[in-house]
Structures are given as C-alpha cells and as structure tokens.
Amino acid sequence: MSVAGHSPPPFFKRGPAPLARLAFFLALAVLLMVADLRFKTLEPARVAVATLLWPLQKAVMLPVEGAGEAGTYLSDLVRLKQENEELRRRQLAQANLLLRQTHLENENRRLRALLDMGDRLDVPTRAAEILYAARDPFSRRIIIDRGLTHDIEAGQPVIDDVGVIGQVTRVFPLTSEVTLLTDKNQSIPVQVARNGQRAILAGAGGGVLEIKFLPANADVQPGDTLVTSGLDGVYLPGLPVARVTSIDRDNSFSFARIECAPLAGVERQGQVLVLGRRSVPPMPEDAPEQAKKSAKGKKARLAK
Amino acid sequence: MIQPTHSSRRILLPARAWFIYFSLLAAFVLNLTPLGRVPGIPDWLALVLCFWCIHQPLKVGMAAGFFFGLATDVANAGVMGQHAFAYVLLAFAAGGLSRRVLWFPLAQQALHVLPLLLGTQLVMLAIRLATGAEFPGLLYFLSSFVAALLWHPLNYVLLLPQYQPVERDDNRPI
Fold it and tell me: CB of B95 within 8 Å of any CB in chain A?
C-alpha cells in the first residue's frame, strides 16, 4: 500500500544480503561435492543431463572436426601412401606369426586339455573411435563413440593396436568415458613378461606410470615389458601394458621407485578396441564348510 | 575515443535480460568445444559471467554463477559442484568490485579481472587437489591471462546491443 509513499521504491529491493547469498550457494555446492565424491549418488542425474546435452555437443564438434579434415585434406595422398607401405611392411613381418596362430592355438587347446587346465577365455570385442579428450584438466579421460546402445558396460578394458590404454568408467547412451592408464586414480595388475613377477601399476601423473609396492630388491630391470596378469578378472592375461624406464632403489624406502612408460598410444587419437567382460570361473567350493563351522561356533557361544 | 566506462559521457541503453542469458549460454557452448588438451583456451563462461556481474550486478549474480557452474560440471564429467563453487565466488567478488572497476580505462579493468579469474582457477585447483587429482601443470593458469587479454574486445562485443540508438536520427553525431 503505497498511499503516502511509505514502502521503499523498488530500486532498494535487492533480496538477501550478498554474504548470506554467498554462504547459501557455497553450502549448496559443498553439499553437491560431498554427494558426488563420497556417496556417488549423482550418477543417474549426470547421465540424464549428458544425454540432453549430447546434440549440442555434437553440433559444437562439427566445425572442429571440419577444420581438422580440411587441414589433412591436402596432405592426405602422401600420408596414405606412407601409411599403406608401413602397414604392408608390418603385415609381412607378422605374417609368419599370424599364419601359425591358428595352428598354435589348436595345439595349445589340446595340450591344456591333456594337462586338465581350463580353456583360455576369449572375449567379444567392439571397435570404437576416440571422439575427444575430456575437458577436465585434472584427470586423464577420453570419450569414445560407443555407449549403452552398443552394449558397452563400465569396467570393460580398452586397447589399441599396441597395448592397453585404459578402462571404461562411465557409460552414456551414445558415448562412454574411458579413464586412461596414466590417470592418477587408475591402476592395473601386471606381471613382468621376463620372469612373471606380479605387481600393480598405477598412474603417477604427467603421463608416467609407476609400479607400486615392489620391494627394493625385486627382479625388475629397465627395459622390461609389463603385461597384464589377468588376476583381477577384468583384463585378459598377456596384454602388453608398459615398459620400465627407470628404477630408483633407495634403501631408505622399503619399496623401489619404478617408473614406466605406456606402450600403447595412450594420449593419442584414433581407433580403439573395447574388450568384452571376462566371465571368471566361480570360487572353489570349500568356503561354505568354513561358514557352517563359524556359524556353529557362534550358536554354541550364544547358547552359553 | 568513446569507451564504455563510467568515466566517458556515453549513455548506454539498458541491458536486455535475454541478451545477457544468450551470451552466457553462448559462452557455455563455446566451453563445450572439444579442443583436447591445448593450454591457454580461456574459460569463456567465467569471463562472460565476470563481465555481466561487473556491468549488471543487479541482473546477474551468484544464482546465475551457480546454475551455469553446475551445467559445466555435468558436461565436463569432473567433480559435481566444482565449477559451481568457483563461479559463485567469482560472481560474489565481481559484484563487489562492480562499483569500482568501471571507472578505470579498459586495460586497467583487465588488470582487475585477471586476479578474479586466477582466483577462480585456484579455487578449482584446491578442490581437485584436495580430492586426490593430479596437478595439471603451471600452463593451466595460462587461460586466465588469455582471458584477461580478451577483456578489451569482449567489452565491445557484449555492449554492442546497448550502443544502438532507439530511433535513428541521421543528424545526431552518435
């Protein structure tokens, strides 16, 4: 009721004080951070919004892709010729192995049957293309062009023509996010190809990998190739992962500091292969007996 | 030389809300461009948000910062709330400085904006390092310097609609 002008003019109506608003929004942001990092409750919301944003993202990507294609257009013929020659040379070099592969596989299966070992598992694969590196500068992730609609699941390993590059960590309907081996929060069980020494390889930041928790006198040498050990039930055993570049055996620490360089083109663009999930054989059946025993023990204790 | 500052005599038209939000949205879309890991790409959204918080502190503020920050977090697949936190702080600081900054010429305005943008990046860095991410290298901060250099052209681009006279008059000097 502004009969005699008692209410202030709208110019002065500015809502709550800035500091109060700041506190409110900061608290809300912290709440979101905790919900996301600690409880991982925001994944469905993220997938939904990312799906809505996908057409927009695709539209923004078009000019960038176009510029890239225009850049390579002129140099394409020369590059293709070189690549073709390189591929032919590589094929010839590998022909010896490839031609005998089927024979060796059959032989291996027969020998394994003779020794009464389980069959080596084979998994389905799916080719995918790297779309772009994720914009988050604090982690090392890439986005590939296969997603839920192509039966990709979180946890599947991703390889290129040389070795392992990472693991699918988040799946959207049309794309999925691959965390590279060089990410600080990514680790992979490996063994030294030379002697079978098992270890865990983790990203160390700056595109370097590091073997963790190996004693200072472990038998690892610079130049050793590391392959997946397959102990985790995720990666197939024997996939090349990295090469040891330097070892620092300082006796004042209980573990050696072993730095490795990834073999695959972890930070490059191109085609990759998403390996299907391995089905791991079930655990042996001696566990229930122990469980029964402990249950009995508990009952006995309760009866007392 | 006509400059869009308080010290010049130029009278601007009132800013339209739809243009403000359109420019913020355009900056958000620009941020989505997949350029990979090239250092020095400015954070367009932070820059445009800072601009409007300084020029129109009554129309754009912490709420806009929060919601656009949240959208960035979702699109970036980083930590939820990281950009929202930093942008709210940026909007608060820019709104607080708004009465002072516009009295300076554009180059000195850019010097005011630079610490705001660097502070935003520092806040995000602190959040991510505290949650166990790796340090992205000092080149990470290059984008703030590039953004501060863009402050001068950005002023003319974003104030262009406010330069247009309401009715055309060929005899008038502006």
Answer: yes
